[in-house]
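dude i think i finally got it to work??
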Amino acid sequence: MSQQPSFLPFFPSLADFGWDEACEHAFTPHRAAGLIPARIVRAERGLCETVTDTGPLRAQLPPTGSGDPLPVPCTGDWVALRPAAPGRAPVVAAVLERRTTLVRSTASRTSQGQLLAANVDTVVVTVSLAAPLNIGRIERMLALAWESGARPVLVLTKADACDDAPTAAAEVSEVAPGVDVLVTSAVTGEGLDTLAAVVDGTVVLLGPSGTGKSTLGNRLLGQDLLTVGAVRGTDGKGRHTTAWRELLPLPTGGVLLDTPGLRAVGLHDAGDGLDHTFAEIQQLARDCRFADCAHAVEPGCAVLAAVEAGEVPARRLDSYHRLLRENTYAASRTDARLRADREGAKKDIAQKLRATYAFRERQL
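look at this
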């Protein structure tokens, strides 16, 4: 390519984007076949922008398959490119095995999940302190982050717009066991040095519009490469200023992946993520009388006992149940056995209702 694409500020190498010995080992058979190693830094409309050791390349994505629920290469993927004839774009011939995947459930009725990013090391969940805290959303985002296999970091932004940031941080920390909670302000610079020191590898910014992801990303990048939009004063919500997911190298090492604001975050097979997010409930569950305790009405339930004693907020257990139901439903759309169990339970309830109505009619 004769012209430097706009998505990169300079000509980086694969090492700048995380290529290491593990990647080299995984790529060995592809290199023997004459393919080119690359990482996808942006993917859209059947094409992708990649970075290689010889510079950026635009490549064609393979057609969407029908068997794989997540068939399309995405931002963050390490891929093997098949060189093309002069004047034509190379083609993505293979995707290396993903170390981590950030996936959310789609809004459609299909069983497919939406792959947001691959091979991520740190998921920065952004929460704005300029708006009232939505604890339920934070728990949902953390479950998504934990399930990816990456390390979550919870960043409270816009501390300059909050009357009592320490209290807000303490409240959030209560629902984020095992997660670093940082208070930051792009206006005053508070917490930004700490954030830069905490994150590493491939870093993804995750959160709804208006939480200051792009502003935060620009501070980490050291220059304004990401578009920043205005936020409505009425509800603290912002417009989507990031239109796609793309990777940009960080001056301190590693790469940054900015994502469009997520209006909705549905869980997709996130059982492990829920276990991490509600770690205290999982710990208490070990002392329940029954191994399959649902923590609802069972006698000898250690979780319910903790709620009654005020050790675990009832809201916390309600949130756990709600997200667990959602995740079970999402899993049932892809798991035939779970789907059959769910449909069987619905039929059983319907039969009992019909029997009840019939009995009442006979009594009239």
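The two ends are 84 Å apart (CA to CA).
im so relieved honestly
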